[in-house]
Amino acid sequence: MIIWNPWHGCHKISEGCEHCYMYFLDSKRGVDTSIVTRTANFNLPVRRDRRGNYKLRPGMQLYVGLSTDFFVEEADAWRPEVWAMMRTRSDIAFRILTKRAHRIKDCLPPDWGEGYRNVMLSVTCENQRNADARLPLLLDVPARHKGFMAAPLIGAIDASRYLALGQIEEVLCGGENYDGSRPCHYEWVAELSHQCREADVTFNFIETGSVFVKDGRTYCIPSKEVQSRQALRSGLSHYNGKPKFDLRRCADTIFGDEAMEWYEPKYREHCAMCGSRMTCNGCSDCGRCHRP
User: Fold this and answer.
1) Could you tell me which residues are beta bridge partners of residue 205?
2) Which among 57, 83, 155, 204 could disulfide-bond with 109, CB atoms 3.0 to 4.6 Å apart, if both were Cys?
3) In which region does residue 188 sit, left (phi positive, over 0), alpha (psi from -120 to 50) or beta (all else)?
4) Are 221 and 275 contacting, i.e. CB atoms less than 8 angstroms apart?
């Protein structure tokens, strides 16, 4: 999975934020997560190599803002530049995730129209209350690609009436991790999986979370690798294809980008047992896993 964080930092706005993984990880580094700042990777999609070609190859998919919220208020001044980069890199797919569904409409670029062909808008829904608050707002926004993430899943969700409208392409689901993790129940995941199967929407159960409850037994699973493997083994995921982004070669080809090879996802041996593989776009070659 390849992640692009143009800015870092956020503010807690709902129950799902209570034990935010980013606040936990930042605390280990002495970073104040509540301060929103631009990152050194702000212009990552349009960076070029010495020959003038883009460093990121066409056909890639980027998950945007996993260490922040894309629609956080402090980033309003920077967001137009990011929209411009997404527009320029029409050959890359961008997946945006937010809890601030109420801000999406007001923060879209002037030329958004029915949505950029290479952008997916997704909202996080951690329980029924927030699903009912955020999904109608998402469905009311014009966009060519939409999804939602039930994570951290801290309560049952009935999304059947939203899925039945045919706008949502995929649902990701996972439990909570790190400090103060609340339990994720198998029954909640299974029911959401059933709803997605009924609507034939891709459902990806990516991880159990640190505390998982099944058949009345509570399991403590600190290893995210084990969580992911157990999620895969559950058989709850349902595949109906990846979003069909209409990716097109960039208009700016003066440096020979036409000759760049189209990105082909690469998976490592251990990826075969990863719960996220269904919606992952391959290994980013970060080198942190030290595996073949």
Assistant:
1) 173
2) 83
3) alpha
4) no
Q: How many CB atoms lie within 10 A of CB 278?
A: 18
- The residues, any chain, with a CB within 8 Å of residue 268's CB and separated by 6 or more, are 283, 289, 291, 292
Q: What are phi and psi of 207, to 5 degrees?
A: -165, 150
Alpha carbons 88 and 154: distance in angstroms, whole number: 38
| Alpha carbon distance 238, 172 (integer Å) | 10
Q: How far is CA 44 from the centre of its chain?
A: 17
Q: Specify which residues 93 forms β-bridges with.
A: 61
List all residues 6 or more positions away from 40 whose beta carbon is below 8 Å from its beta carbon: none
Structure tokens at 96: 């945006």
Q: Specify the DSSP element, H or E, that contains 120.
A: strand 119-124
* Three-state DSSP state, 190: helix
- Alpha carbon distances (Å) from 112 to 83, 249, 280: 9, 19, 26
CA distances from 174 to 154, 192, 239 (A): 9, 11, 16
Could you tell me which residues come within 8 angstroms of residue 11 by beta carbon, excluding any fewer than 6 positions away? Answer: 34, 72
Euclidean distance between CA atoms 205 and 110, whole angstroms:
35
- Residue of higher predicted confidence among 278 and 132: 132
| pTM (2 d.p.) | 0.93
What span, in angstroms and rounded, lies between the C-alpha atoms of 6 and 201? 30
Mind listing the pLDDT tens digit for each residue in 97-141? 999 999 999 999 999 999 999 999 999 999 999 999 999 999 999
Query: Average pLDDT of the chain?
Result: 93
**How large is the greatest C-alpha to C-alpha distance in the chain, in angstroms?**
62
- In the chain, % helix, strand, coil (3-state, to 5) comes to 30, 20, 50
Distance, CA of 44 to CA of 198 (rounded, Å): 39
Nearest to 154 by CA among 174, 127, 172, 124: 127
